[in-house]
Design a protein that fits this description.
Two copies of one chain form a homodimer. The first copy, chain A, is α+β, with helices and mostly antiparallel strands. Chain A has a single domain, classed as Coproporphyrinogen III oxidase, aerobic (oxygen-dependent coproporphyrinogen oxidase, 3-Layer(aba) Sandwich), CATH 3.40.1500.10. Chain A is built from eight helices and twelve strands. In chain A, a hairpin with a 2-residue loop joins strand 1 and strand 2. The N and C termini of chain A lie far apart (50 Å). The mean pLDDT of chain A is 93. Chains A and B meet through helix 6 and strand 12 of A and helix 6 and strand 12 of B.
Chain lengths: 287, 287
Amino acid sequence: MNDNARGPGEPAMKAAATAWFEELRDRICAAFEVLEDELAGAFKDRPAGRFSRQTWRRDGGGGGTMAVMKGRVFEKVGVNVSEVWGVFDETFRAEIPGAAGDGRFWASGISLVAHMRSPLVPAVHMNTRHIATGDKAWFGGGADLNPPYPDESDTTDFHAAFKAACDAHACADYDRFKAWADDYFFIKHRGMARGVGGIFYDFVAAGDDAFSFTRDVGETFVKVYPDLVRRHMDEPWDEDQRAHQLAYRGRYAEFNLVYDRGTRFGLMTGGNPEAVLMSLPPVATWP
Amino acid sequence: MNDNARGPGEPAMKAAATAWFEELRDRICAAFEVLEDELAGAFKDRPAGRFSRQTWRRDGGGGGTMAVMKGRVFEKVGVNVSEVWGVFDETFRAEIPGAAGDGRFWASGISLVAHMRSPLVPAVHMNTRHIATGDKAWFGGGADLNPPYPDESDTTDFHAAFKAACDAHACADYDRFKAWADDYFFIKHRGMARGVGGIFYDFVAAGDDAFSFTRDVGETFVKVYPDLVRRHMDEPWDEDQRAHQLAYRGRYAEFNLVYDRGTRFGLMTGGNPEAVLMSLPPVATWP
């Protein structure tokens, strides 16, 4: 890999990936604000939410921007973009391909988690990233749907959309990436899936197809998820359903704090904890 | 160490330790139910809480009893006693003294976390345990106070009580155990303490003094903590203070899921997840 002031990796691809993650963030924020405007169900008398942004710098190299909205459809949604570089902690190196040598890394990505007011609207996670170490560079990411009350056609449509994205790229194997999500988004200590799955991929060697596939994952997300929100956001719900949603969120928090690779990456590389933990639910219960 | 059907360790001490953990549990439950009866502040019109118990068996050896109370002073308090034995998972062995060889272990302990309704009453954690592996046996434990609003005399009295317990035993070094608590009960990714500390000890070689000290830690807890609850439980509080308490609990949940040794031990040895995660707050926020 080439080297430059911002750590290892190929500069043109790094710049293009970072620019894409920022563009995708802008498009997602705009699409979500439209949903806030469209609400006709519970909470419609509250003002429509709007994203606010906050930038942060990382000691040791880089930083990012947190975009957060606390709205009437989206109880709490965070969309983080960050570009960071530096040297991995000694103990963390062993976990990362190509980092055993000099430990230098560069990483850029977008990470999104949405927790919804209505228990009938699925929560969602989407993340894509480009990472380079001393002798490897790759793309990774994924998206998974987390409905407190799974809806069969939502699940079908979500999976079909990501299948289409995978099928268009030689570097992507839908069956493998879907199985990887089922395996990854699993709360081992409870022996249960965190949601209804999606796709997960990592260590896809950097190159034009890997980047193009990563862009398609983002495009797919911004197309399919708002439709699922629209299907359910005006449906009435009751306090029992809300209580179920809050306990479901407790298990989501368990997953993120115990197992999530991105959370662990962020906490172990000195990321901004507010940004890293933006994924945690606004309210959760362990009743 | 001797060996028997229940795994490594010295049978008489193991039996005595387990009997003590159960006796301590009974005394704590009784003392906490008295507090439920005494309440004269907010929620006094609700019925006084009572513990209910549930036993569980562990695949691979042993089991435990969860005692849980959801009351009007104690929003959620869990007191678990368990005695488990088996063989450590290959990947977990390296973390445990004396387990690198055959990986067999036996462990018995009491573990308590109390989350209080009033934001002015400190939450608390107390845990003591006796563990034996193929060639080592030891006692460990600790207690720490977690007040959303720290009160100087509460903190002073809590620390003084555990200092007295340590000072009475040759195996216990208060300064070291207090510093260990400050180091252990620290939320690294946030760079902040989880509470106001207490004591933490581990790997204190099994023997009469180590067991006697461990009993004193329990005796100290059951003497000092109810007094702190009594000081504050009838004081009025408002919604802003409650909101602060719920966010404080969010950080407590982060600590337990990311760093807590007992939680990790439980999840990695196939403990009952409901018992292991009993420490999580009934409601927490990440606002």
